[in-house]
Amino acid sequence: MKIHPDVKVEDLAGLICQTLRDAGITVTLTGGACVSIWSEGQYVSDDLDLIEHGLVTRDKIRKVLSTLGFTEQGRHFIHPKTKFFVEFPTGPLMVGHQRVELIVERVTSGGNLRLLSATDCVKDRLAAFFHWHDLQSLEQALLVATAQAVDLNELRRWSKKEKNEQKFKEFLRRLQHR
């Protein structure tokens, strides 16, 4: 697959994930790009947040991504033929205070993509709403929960552990009105 201006976020993420995996680096997509994928494009993100599993040097990531035409600019990797940029936030892979156990794999035209499940994507967005009162993240959680079958019982359990049952009730109220 070639990177081009109209590349879909899922295909580009799959290409990057597969290329890194082929070099011995395992990463999982999280953040806004997951919201884009699980909301079926209702939310648009220009960045791909990839969390590494295990210890990986920045130099090794730089070398692998350069084979795809990416260059490092500060904390981001950019490519001249796409608006998407790549970032590697510090791990481990967490949603709120809980480690992510279930990783979903999807086959894309670029390769195998590892990403948060739809339910964990909602948790990721709700965590920002719970802890930083981020209303945009609440809206993103609602977009995913509307587009996908998510486990509301698991979200309720997790919200209780996060000590945010009231804000979870607000999420449920808004979800019921969609």
Which architecture of the largest domain would the CATH scheme give at its second level?
A: 2-Layer Sandwich
Largest sheet: 5 strands, mixed
Oligomer: single chain
**SSE-based structural type:** alpha+beta
Rg computed from alpha carbons, rounded to a whole number of angstroms: 16 Å
Strand content: 15-25%
Strand order of the largest sheet: 1-2-5-4-3
Give the H and E element order: HEHEHEEEEEEEHHHH
Describe the fold and architecture.
This protein has 7 helices and 9 strands; from the N terminus they run αβαβαβββββββαααα. By secondary structure, the chain is of the alpha+beta class. It has 2 domains: 9-117, Beta Polymerase, domain 2 (2-Layer Sandwich); 119-176, no CATH class. A 5-stranded mixed beta sheet has the order 1-2-5-4-3. A two-stranded antiparallel ribbon has the order 6-7. A hairpin with a 2-residue loop joins strand 8 (103-108) and strand 9. Helix 2 packs parallel to helix 5. The longest helix is centred in the C-terminal third of the chain and has 15 residues, at 118-132. The chain is globular and about 45 Å long. The protein starts with 8 loop residues before the first helix and ends with a helix. The mean pLDDT is 97.
